[in-house]
Sequence to fold (286 residues):
Amino acid sequence: MNRKLSQVHLSLPSRDGDGVKINRIAGASMHRILDPYLMIDEINSDSAADYMGGFPEHPHRGFETITYMKAGRMRHRDHMGNEGVIGPGDVQWMTAGHGVLHSEMPEQEDGLMHGFQIWLNLPAADKLKPAAYQDIRSAEIPCHQDEYGSEVRVIAGKLGVGNTTLNGCLPAMPTRPLLADVSLAPDAETMLDLGDYERVLVFVYAGGSTGLKSKQLGVYGSGDTLHLRAGEQGFDALVLSGTALREPIAQYGPFVMNQPEEIEQAIRDFQEGKLVTQCAPGRAHL
Fold:
C-alpha cells in the first residue's frame, strides 16, 4: 500500500544565533507531528549578511543535532576539544546528552551557504548520557543514482530504492532515525521502501512534487512504499522518519527535557558550570 499525504506544513522565516536568517519548522504545536524530531532549520542564502554572524558558543542538553551541508562550509568547535569543518554533502551528528558547549561558524565570507540543522529528541532514559560527536564525509554516505539523473542519499537508517537497499553509516539508535536526501530529475518518479515507520516526513527544499511545493513539509501515513513524482522543475527533499517517543516534552531554548523541573536543573547547571562533564580533548564517537 502506498503511503498517502495527510498534512502539509509551511516552514516559516526566522533568525537564530547571531542573526542568521533561516526557515524553520518547529514549535509545541509540531511536537506530535515531528516526533521523534523536534525541529528542521534551513539556511539558504548567497548574501553573507544573512549568515556571517554564525552560531557563537552556546549550550545544549537532552537531544541530538544533525547538521547537513549542501553548499558552503561550517566550522564546529566544542568543549570536548573537537574541531572541524564540514562542506558540501558532509554531515555532523552531535549528541548533546548531559550537556555540550559548542559553536558553529561560517568558514567563508561570501558565496552560497545552504544547509540544514535538524534536532532529534532523545528518550528520557538517554537524555543525560555522555556527549558525543561524529563527522560523516560526503563520500561515506550511501548513494543510488539512476539513468535519468535522480539520486537518493541515505544518511541514517535503511531505505529501499529500485532493487537496492541503502544503509546509513550510523549505528543503531533507540529512535531508529531515517534521514535521506532525495533529488529527482524533472518529471521523474521514484518508489521508496521505508519499512514499518508509522509516518514519514518529506521536506521539499527545491522544486516540487505532487501535492508539495518548496519550503513545505508533507506528512505521509503508514504504508509499504512512498511514491514521489517530481514536477517540471525537478524535486529536492529531505525524507525523515523515526520511532515516535510519545514522551512529554519540556523545552527552554537549547534545553529539551521531559519535565519543567529538569529544565530548571539544566539552567542551574549551566549557570554553575556543571552542564558539561570535563574530559580530555579528543573526538567522542557515537
Summary: Residues 279-286 have pLDDT under 50 and may be disordered. The chain is about 5% helix and 50% strand. The CA atoms of residues 265 and 275 lie 9 Å apart.
